[in-house]
Specification:
mainly beta; two-stranded antiparallel ribbon; about 10% helix; 1 helix; six-stranded mixed β-sheet; 8 strands; globular; single chain
Length: about 110
């Protein structure tokens, strides 16, 4: 799957999702600044979701979570990636604007 970066616009994220979507994945635009890519819930399975935050019309953070613990990163999840302009020290990894934020995978 393509790498998302802090320079990406909402339209670019939609394009990446459209090019790699499956019938199981859902892009939910919860607000202008917060989107989620989720899978349908399955009994007995850990359901992962990819949280994508925007700041001033650009990707600012990407975090992988499980649907039952949306506020904390699961041990097996990749590190949170947050642009310097929106970093929360002590909770997320900081990156420069020219570095990749994270990968959307399925």
């Amino acid at each position: 799957m393509n790498t998302l970066s802090p320079a990406d616009t909402p339209d670019h994220v939609r394009e990446i999702f459209a090019n790699h979507a499956t019938y199981r994945l859902r892009l939910q635009e919860r607000s202008q600044d917060h989107w989620e890519i989720t899978m349908p819930l399955e009994f007995g399975a850990t359901d992962w979701c990819l949280l994508i935050d925007f700041d001033q019309g650009r990707v600012s953070a990407i975090r992988m979570r499980s649907s039952d613990a949306i506020d904390r990163r699961p041990e097996a999840a990749p590190d949170d990636k947050v642009s310097r302009s929106s970093a929360n020290p002590g909770r997320n990894s900081e990156i420069g604007d020219s570095e990749a934020v994270g990968k959307v995978t399925h």
